Amino acid sequence: MNPSDAIEAIEKPLSSLPYSLSRHILEHLRKLTSHETRDWHYGEKRGR
Asked: From which domain of life does this come (predicted)?
């Protein structure tokens, strides 16, 4: 599953939250998956 598929999969459950809160959570998830994907691409995947 690629990161964008994972984010799409949780958008529906998050829709039960207030809009501003669900957007805030999704923005953070997108940032995390973006950094993780970039690090993985460049061979810099680190355990956290």
From this structure: Bacteria
